[in-house]
């Protein structure tokens, strides 16, 4: 099968982006797929989760600033079945470094390509959309998966993602395809969520995935 890179992104925080990215990575691994997870979010939540709270591993900084090859940095995580290219707060510094030194827009894509070639799926836990490096990292993906809550600001984030993908196609010749919109933390019995879900389906049609209900356990 052709290697596929999937960005998990939404400009609105608190929509379950990292949770979806980690669960999808582990699910694919349990289906026998070779999976790498790239933690490109300067918050480093995916790395902290998979590494039992360890926030010291600045893999993205090593990749983007030092030039350490991505396959060397992405190591198997015990018990999870995935390879992790970790990140932490230094990831933000790395993206700023790329911008300040005038690196080509395709730098992130070029640096991640060797890792993507070694696995079936590369999932990217994306940085905040208004932060440095967002568009460059999105450009490295083949598809984008957008989790959202069924409330106005989150849904605006979905529209932003679609517009940003189109912009990349127009300005840089490559637009990641919208793989899906994932309604997350839904309360199906509320009028607001029913209305917002209907609007989401009217706008994005079959790319809207089945909703994930709110569950506190």
Description:
With 217 residues, this protein is of the alpha/beta class. It has a 7-stranded mixed β-sheet, with helices on both faces. The longest helix has 21 residues.
Short descriptors:
single chain; 217 residues; alpha/beta; 7-stranded mixed β-sheet; 43% helix; 15% strand
Output the radius of gyration: 17 Å
- Beta-strand percentage? 15-25%
Shape: globular
Separation, N- and C-terminal Cα atoms = 37 Å
Strand order of the largest sheet: 3-4-2-5-1-6-7
Roughly what percent helix? 40-55%
* Count of strand segments: 7
Low-pLDDT regions: none
The helix-strand sequence is: EHEHHHEEHHEHEHEH
Task: Summarize the biggest pleated sheet.
Answer: 7 strands, mixed
Q: Give the mean pLDDT.
A: 90
Count of alpha/pi helices: 9
């Amino acid at each position: 099968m052709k290697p596929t890179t999937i960005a998990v992104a939404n400009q609105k925080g608190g929509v379950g982006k990292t949770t979806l990215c980690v669960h999808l990575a582990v699910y694919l691994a349990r289906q026998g797929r070779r999976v790498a997870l790239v933690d490109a979010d300067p918050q480093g939540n995916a790395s902290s989760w998979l590494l039992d709270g360890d926030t010291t591993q600045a893999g993205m900084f090593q990749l983007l600033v030092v030039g350490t090859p991505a396959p060397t940095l992405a190591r198997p995580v015990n018990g999870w079945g995935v390879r992790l290219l970790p990140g932490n707060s230094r990831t933000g510094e790395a993206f700023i470094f790329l911008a300040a030194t005038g690196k080509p827009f395709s730098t992130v894509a070029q640096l991640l390509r060797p890792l993507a070639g070694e696995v079936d799926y590369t999932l990217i836990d994306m940085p905040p959309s208004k932060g440095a490096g967002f568009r460059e990292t999105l450009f490295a993906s083949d598809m984008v998966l957008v989790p959202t809550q069924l409330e106005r600001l989150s849904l605006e984030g979905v529209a932003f993602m679609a517009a940003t993908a189109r912009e990349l196609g127009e300005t840089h010749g490559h637009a990641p395809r919208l793989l899906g919109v994932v309604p997350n933390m839904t309360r199906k019995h509320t009028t607001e969520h029913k209305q917002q879900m209907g609007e989401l389906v009217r706008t994005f049609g079959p790319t809207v995935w089945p909703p994930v209900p709110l569950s506190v356990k």
